[in-house]
Amino acid sequence: MYKSKMGLITLVSVTIAALIAICYEFSWVNFSPSFLMAVRWIVATVLIVNALVRKNLTTWILTCMILGIFVGLDFPNIAISLQPLSKGFIKLVKTIVGPILFATLVYGIAGHSDLKQVGRMAWKSMLYFFCATTCAIFIGLGAINLTKAGVGVDVAHMPHEELPKTQISNDAQILETLPDHVHPVYKFTAFFRDLFPENIVKAVYDNQVLQIVVFSVLFGIGLAMVDEKKRKPLVDFTESLSETMFKFTNLIMYFAPIGVGAAMAFTVGHLGVDILKNLFMLLATLYLALLGFLTFVLLPVALYLKIPVLKFINAIKEPVSIAFATTSSDAALPKAMSAMEKFGVPRKIVSFVIPTGYSFNLDGTSLYLSLAAIFVAQAAGIHLTFGEQLMIAFTLMITSKGVAAVPRASLIILIATADQFGLPTFVIAAILGIDELMDMARTSVNVIGNCLATVVVAKWEGEFDEEAPYRDDHGQPELEG
Predict the structure, then answer these.
(1) pLDDT in tens, the chain (481 residues)
(2) How far apart (Å, rounded) are the C-alpha atoms in residues 175 and 126?
(3) In this structure, are residues 316 and 329 in contact, taking their beta carbons and an 8 Å threshold?
(4) CA end-to-end span of the chain, whole Å?
(5) How far apart are CA 308 and CA 466, in angstroms?
(6) Whether 255 contacts 92, CB under 8 Å
(7) Which subcellular locations apply to this protein (predicted)?
(8) What is the radius of gyration, based on Cα positions, of the chain?
């Protein structure tokens, strides 16, 4: 009863504060800065009390995200000084990725010795990934052509940030010596070359998720071929390691509210809110396009497969909140894996589909890249035919593999593609200021898409536990009412 009353007080407080903020931003009412600051910290106090009452990790994460915004607005220098906390949280989570992928994949393959299922999961995952990312690309193209957010934008008078440097790789030097018609062949074979790790320790150190997956799958297949007596000790070790790493994840997640709050504070503190006014149409187009992708692609898939949508949303809210605030899918990976296993997807499917999806199923990133590339052309006054737009979009889809783990790595891809198609990079420098805000949305959609992909493959394999979403935290069926 007390929780519901506190929830109502929180809702009313946040609603009133939001209405005051809207009235101030649209100059309907001229509030003093000190009054607005007081309102924010009254709401902050209510949110903290609500979180203390609920004693729920998700509530604390969302509360700290809002507190981070308030700190960024009112104390920007302190907010910027909090960045090491968010960096520390991401580093801590990344220590989990290599061991948890290796342990769960090897145990899933060697522990059950069903090598045919590995092949089935691979082609089913790839087919679903291809369909999902293709839909995302076309929605991105449709949205930017509909809103024409780049037309008439005065990029010359916007604040320009320094672009990340695109290194000239050995591949680029080789491509310069080859005729244009064989470039796609070389890029395709180079992509397969980069799938394989030259050193598994180096792959873990560099956070090359796909290379870790390839090594683990091959290791698991090799272990499955060994006779039972010699296989069992390693299988038992990987089972124990995977259980330990999931418990380790739970411990680290207690630090998530601090890491997430610090990340939000830094974002607001060093960007401010004025930048939104300059590029509001681009930001709004991206968010609406991503919302359209969730509504018209992922939701129908979930409804068709009879996935309990509200239970699914409840299951993924923590990893999505972490992804949104940190702008790194990697930070959400361990929690997403444990959440999907709890939701009813077998561990062997979760440990294969989610890491593979981090390279091949970047729905949010694919949509953003197609949208941003056309925005650059519009802002520069360059007219692109539909065929040219498709060429850019599918080039981005191929070159964007594996960028999910690194915050804002998609910028490098966008700059390289702009150079390739003769688009001006100075426009990208202008939109770099809000890239962090766009990265929050596209990273969240990446995580949602990959979580749903695990359920799709599990349903396809006939191994989804239909009762699991309706169990409570202790494995007991939830009581109605």
Answers:
(1) 567 777 788 888 888 887 887 787 777 888 888 888 888 889 889 889 888 888 878 788 888 888 988 898 888 899 889 889 888 888 887 888 788 888 888 887 887 666 787 788 889 998 999 899 989 999 999 999 998 887 876 655 555 555 555 555 677 778 778 887 787 788 778 777 877 888 888 888 877 777 888 898 889 889 988 888 888 899 899 989 988 988 888 888 888 889 888 888 887 787 666 555 557 788 889 999 999 999 999 999 999 999 999 999 999 999 998 888 888 777 888 889 999 999 999 988 998 898 888 878 889 988 998 898 898 888 888 888 888 888 887 777 666 655 544 445 577 678 777 877 778 777 777 677 677 778 889 999 999 999 999 999 999 999 999 988 887 655 555 544 3
(2) 28
(3) no
(4) 14
(5) 9
(6) yes
(7) Cell membrane
(8) 23
Query: Distance (Å, rounded) from C-alpha 267 to C-alpha 279?
Result: 16
Element (H, E) at 191: helix 183-193
Residue with tokens 């805000």: 437
Cβ(405)–Cβ(328) below 8 Å: yes
In sequence order, which residues have a C-beta less than 8 Å from that of residue 184 and are 6 or more positions away?
none
CB atoms near residue 72 (< 10 Å): 24
Q: At what angle do helices 2-25 and 33-54 cross, to 10 degrees?
A: 160
Task: Give the number of other CB atoms < 10 A from CB of residue 253.
Answer: 20
**Tally of residues, the chain:** 481
**Helix/strand/coil for 162:** coil
